[in-house]
Amino acid sequence: MGVGCVEKYHTFNMAHKDTGMIGWYVECDEIAVASAIDEMIFAFNYLSHSTTEEEVDRAKRELVAIKGVQYDNDIELAKLNARTLSHAGRVIPWAEQYHRIMMLKKNSQ
Fold first, then answer.
1. Do residues 24 and 11 make contact, with C-beta atoms less than 8 angstroms apart?
2. Which of 8-23 are b and which e, b meaning 16 or more Cβ less than 10 Å from the residue's Cβ?
């Protein structure tokens, strides 16, 4: 890419028992900093205000399909249990996680 472009970016979402954090990391030259910040803020605002109920339902189905296959073996299930124990302070069974995912809905404003 030329001058004024983002070279690398990374987003993250961390959830813990009593708090959470979402953010991004961008590598770019000094010319692209302002436009990179504007684009990221626009994307986060767009995500929170323009998501439809159908998109939420599709995302829930895809997440359940991915997680259901991922936790099909004992090693992955043990990793899930360790992760939920460290983040939530207790082991959250896959059935409860499934129920939590299915209870998600679009936030009406």
1. yes
2. eeeeeeeeeeeeeeee
Q: Which residues contact 27 (CB under 8 A, 6 or more apart)?
A: 6, 7, 8, 9
pLDDT, tens digit (0-9, with 9 covering 90-100), for 13-64 = 877 777 778 888 888 888 888 888 888 888 888 877 777 888 888 988 888 8
- Tell me the torsion sign for CA atoms 82, 87, 62, 23: negative
- How much is the pTM? 0.54
End-to-end CA distance of the chain: 40
Phi, psi angle pair for 106, to nearest 5°: -70, 135
